[in-house]
Write a structure and sequence with these properties.
Elements lengths: L41 E7 L1 E2 L11 E2 L6 H19 L6 E6 L7 H14 L7 E6 L3 H4 L2 H7 L3 E7 L3 H6 L6 H14 L2 E8 L6 H14 L3 E6 L7 H7 L8 H17 L4 E3 L2 E3 L6 H7 L3 E5 L4 E6 L2 E7 L3 H11 L3 E7 L1 H12 L6 E2 H8 L5 H9 L3 E4 L3 E4 L1 H4 L2 H9 L1
Parallel strand pairs: 1-4, 1-11, 2-3, 4-5, 5-6, 6-7, 7-8
Antiparallel strand pairs: 8-10, 9-10, 12-13, 13-14, 15-17, 16-17
Helix pairs in contact: 1-2, 2-4, 7-9, 12-13, 12-16
């Protein structure tokens, strides 16, 4: 699932050349993390909703507060809501933890440590599982990296978003390229695993310019990149500006060319796509996001967090209050901030499994989908998609989108779900 770490921007300090050139990327995933078993797993997601500034493209649950956030009070609320989620989930072995936002790197390391300790009190947390934290590459936040590592974080996900200062300014970021490169270097030194995000299909971006920027990014990456096309979401600042004609994003044809260039370059450099927007060296895929896409269970804790928890043959879909102060008050009053608890039956689970699983290069486990849906894929619809080259079978066990099908993923999912 797409995750950006929204912040804002400050006046950029342009530099004629990067201050740092990395060593060649490692060919294997760094040690210290348990290997991927191929199973969906059980993840814990904790949402820190605060940002230093709201990025104009961001439609995530992020909020700016001009007074210091009472972190101990929020920690207490996180711990209380964990107790309720543990009651709903039952005993589980955690396979990944993700601290997202908002901007989690605005938290003190002690806050992160308290949250991770709380998770370990509620569920079994083996040594060596992936513990990811989203972070921004501003110089202030990067100074906390060693504290986060000491607290238990072993994978950093940096919201870089662009590798040129004019586009960083357009995207409303608080860092410049120099800050980004320093943060990448520091993260590579401190964390066993590191990834960073870029946004492409920006206004006036050519395929040639993006290819150059992408190759530069790959030279800095260790083993994972998240590469998202810029989308104009309702409710964001960009939505109104775009509607008013203040800027134009690449049209559908140009966006497809940018996407295809992305796939070709990352594959040739040893970071093929394992999901629509995520690229990794084999073995370095994000374990937590694989839990979402493989339709595993996960507990969602914090303002605006969502969860999926198996209850017998059903799944309980949870959602919490989005407003941070409203969520905090609810937790202190009721022990949780949930505003939605919906039991999903087999048909709804089958649809979600298809929606999530077709994002993956490994595709969907057909036996699991058939067990949930109680049927085979419609033979006429499947054959049409096969003939047009949008899907393919992997033996009798899996069904996946082709690279061509990924360009029209929503339409493919809609056809197969009917």
């Amino acid at each position: 699932m797409r995750r950006l770490s929204p912040t804002g921007r400050a006046p950029s300090r342009s530099s004629s050349k990067p201050a740092w050139r990395p060593e060649p990327p490692m060919l294997e995933a760094p040690p210290l993390l348990l290997p991927d078993t191929g199973e969906p797993g059980f993840g814990v997601y904790v949402h820190w909703p605060f940002c230093a500034a709201k990025c104009p493209y961001c439609d995530f649950n992020s909020h700016v507060r001009h007074q210091p956030v009472d972190q101990p009070r929020f920690v207490s609320a996180f711990l209380r809501e964990m107790e309720e989620m543990r009651r709903l989930s039952g005993p589980k072995t955690v396979t990944s933890i993700f601290l997202g936002g908002g901007t989690p790197s605005l938290m003190d390391p002690a806050t992160v440590g308290a949250i991770l300790d709380g998770i370990a009190r509620q569920w079994h947390v083996p040594d060596g599982i992936e513990i990811t934290m989203e972070a921004n590459p501003s110089s202030v936040e990067a100074t906390r990296f060693r504290g986060y590592r000491a607290a238990g974080v072993n994978r950093a996900s940096l919201g870089v978003q662009a590798l040129n200062d004019p586009d960083l300014k357009f995207l409303g970021r608080l860092h410049d390229v120099e800050d980004a490169l320093k943060a990448i270097r520091l993260a590579r030194e401190i964390f066993p695993r590191m990834s960073f995000d870029l946004i492409y299909a920006r206004p006036h971006q050519t395929v040639e310019a993006w290819e150059k920027e992408l190759r530069q990014a790959i030279s800095y990456a260790v083993d994972h990149l998240s590469l998202y096309q810029l989308t104009i979401e309702e409710g964001t600042a960009f939505f109104g500006l775009h509607k008013a004609g203040k800027f134009i994003v690449p049209d559908e044809e140009q966006a497809a060319l940018l996407y295809e260039a992305t796939q070709e370059i990352t594959a040739s450099e040893g970071l093929p796509a394992y999901e629509v927007s995520n690229h990794a060296r084999p073995g370095a895929e994000s374990r937590h996001n694989l839990t979402y896409w493989r339709y595993g269970d996960y507990a969602g804790i914090g303002p605006g967090a969502h969860g999926r928890l198996t209850r017998g043959r059903d799944k309980l879909a949870t959602a919490t209050e989005r407003n941070p102060e409203g969520w905090l008050a609810a937790v202190e009053r009721d022990g949780h901030g949930m505003i939605e608890q919906e039991l999903l039956g087999s048909d709804e689970q089958a649809d979600e499994l298809l929606l999530m699983g077709l994002r993956l290069r490994e595709g969907v486990d057909l036996a699991r989908w058939q067990q949930l849906s109680g049927r085979d894929p419609d033979p006429v619809r499947e054959q049409t998609l096969l003939e047009h080259g949008f899907i393919e079978r992997l033996g009798n066990s899996r069904l996946r989108c082709t690279p061509k099908g990924m360009l029209i993923l929503d339409a493919v999912v809609a056809d197969l779900a009917c």
